[in-house]
Amino acid sequence: MMRLPNDLMPVSYLMDEDTRALYITWSDGHESRHPYEALRRACPCAWCAGEGGMKGSVDPDTVFTDQQTTLYELVPVGRYGLTPVWGDGHRTGIYTYERLRALCQCDECRLLRGER
Ligand SMILES: [Zn+2]
Ligand SMILES: [Zn+2]
């Protein structure tokens, strides 16, 4: 399979139950870190994030249950994204690779985005 040099995509991932975080290794060598709760809060689906001016059901103050923030499985979506399947069965959020990288919570990326 041919791949363009700038075609950034995950090459492997690890769902770590101990730290409750998803770790993705990318084709450029970066390892991104995604705590389950932050990942769940960033769910881009219409129900969570809202759509067409309608407010979604998830905001920065939403309190999740353990089930809602337990990553059960990752399902590939075409060649551009992933859908997490959560412990409560929620599985409508499509996270594009671009969005996933932008959500990386590693120290390096947080610093680059000016977060503390
Ligand atoms: Zn959602
Ligand atoms: Zn990062």
Structure description:
The model has no long low-confidence stretch (mean pLDDT 93). Strand 6 and strand 7 form a beta hairpin. Helix content is 19%, strand content 32%. The N and C termini lie far apart (40 Å). It contains 4 helices and 8 strands, in the order E-E-E-H-H-E-E-E-E-E-H-H. Strands 1-2-3 form a 3-stranded antiparallel β-sheet. By secondary structure, it is an alpha+beta fold. The site of one zinc ion (ZN) has 7 residues, from helix 2. One zinc ion binds next to helix 2.
Q: Topology, pairings included?
A:
Layout: E1 10-16, E2 21-26, E3 31-35, H1 36-41, H2 46-49, E4 50-51, E5 54-55, E6 71-77, E7 81-86, E8 95-96, H3 97-102, H4 107-112
Antiparallel strand pairs: 1-2, 2-3, 4-5, 6-7, 7-8
The structure holds zinc ion (ZN) (2 copies).
One zinc ion (ZN) is lined by residues 43, 45, 47-48, 90, 92-93.
Give a quick summary of the entry.
The protein is α+β, with helices and mostly antiparallel strands and 116 residues long. It has four helices and eight strands; from the N terminus they run βββααβββββαα.
